Amino acid sequence: MDVLSDAVTAMRTGRPVAAAHSWAAPWGQRFAVVPGAVGLHVVVRGECWLVPDAGAPIRLGAGDAVLLTDGRGHALADDPATPLRECGDGPGDAGLSHPTLVLCAAYELTDLRRHPLLRAVPEIVHVPGNPSVRTLTELLAVELATGAGPAGLGVTALVDLLFLHTLRAWHAGGGEPAALADPAVRAALEAIHAHPEHPWTVAALAARGGLSRAPFARRFAELTGRPPLAYVSWWRLTVAAGLLRESDAPLRVVARRVGYASEFAFAAAFKRRFAVPPGRYRHPGA
Questions:
Q1: pLDDT value for 32
Q2: Strand partners, 31
Q3: CA-to-CA distance for 214 and 31, rounded, in angstroms?
Q4: Cα angle value 64/65/69 (rounded, 5°)
Q5: Terminal CA-to-CA distance of the chain, rounded, Å?
Q6: What is the DSSP string of 119-146?
Q7: Are 255 and 244 in contact (CB under 8 A)?
Q8: Residue 127: Cβ within 10 Å count
Q9: Which helix (H) or strand (E) covers residue 65, if one does?
Q10: Which of 61, 79, 120, 220 has the greatest CB tally within 10 Å of its CB?
Q11: Peptide bond into 131 cis (omega under 30)
């Protein structure tokens, strides 16, 4: 699952946010459409219904997590028939002592950095009572209770882990991106993610999976949506974007860490991908 761990980090822009909410029946809270976002709800106490804009309602019990991967509009309610209020409408939560307590988290994403492997994840992932998810939820609730804020450093780390363990629980229940279910493609992906700076060739990646060049290239493209070396380039620039966003490393260092021999070649490739040079990407207001 290391490849999915990388995807969790690569696909977000900015810090994830989280908050705890409690409600007493009757209640219904609508969450608006947010294009390019991922939402995560975990029921800490009580029970409720997830009511998607399209599709059947899903009953959630204590310990259940639900991941919404496409930014779709949805609601949480004590009953699917309860009238809904929009976020920000009406009185806020009167503390966290109501019968139903839910932790809500969200990621901001950009389509350019949406990992191709995560396109195989369903739009709604329901994970009933998973021990790891429950433990992380309890830790996140404690962190929020300290007043760390919805985007504090501890909150960020715990939401990353919560999202990852929700995906792992989905995987353990039989869900898995096809590319990771294929041993040859998975071996190549793990090699690329572990060493993006390596001068990979199709032959070298095929050897990782124990296949000859042509069959490997066909299988890799079918399962990831990109030819092997196109994926290598895509992942290098994805890693570079994260380094630019989260570190002060000089451009030449970033270029070297993702396999570019010169800062000029790196800058040209980066601009083709993101439509802005690396320096402006790092400091968009400059």
A1: 82
A2: 74
A3: 47
A4: 155
A5: 38
A6: GGS-SEEEE-S-HHHHHHHHHHHHHHHT
A7: no
A8: 23
A9: strand 65-68
A10: 220
A11: no
Do residues 133 and 166 lie in contact, with contact meaning Cβ atoms separated by under 8 Å?
yes
DSSP letter assigned to residue 35: T
The Cα 253–Cα 13 span in angstroms is 21
- Residue 272 burial class via C-beta count within 10 angstroms: exposed 0-12, middle 13-18, buried 19 and up: exposed
Sheet holding 58-60, edge to edge: 58-60, 48-52, 74-77, 28-31, 85-86
Length of the chain: 286
Q: Which domains does the chain have, with CATH numbers?
A: 2-172 (2.60.120.280), 182-282 (1.10.10.60)
Beta bridge partners of 15: none
pLDDT at 17: 81
Q: Which two tokens stand for residue 284?
A: 């968009």
Residue type, 203: A
Provide the greatest CA pair distance for the chain. Answer: 64
Please determine, for residue 169, whether its predicted confidence score (pLDDT) is greater than 70: yes
Coil, helix or strand at residue 116:
helix
Check pLDDT > 50 for residue 7. yes
| Single-letter amino acid code for the residue at 145 | A
Task: Name the DSSP letter for residue 109.
Answer: B
CA gap 187, 15 in Å, rounded: 30
Residue type, 227: P
pLDDT by residue (tens digit) across 68-94?
Answer: 887 778 999 999 999 998 865 444 454
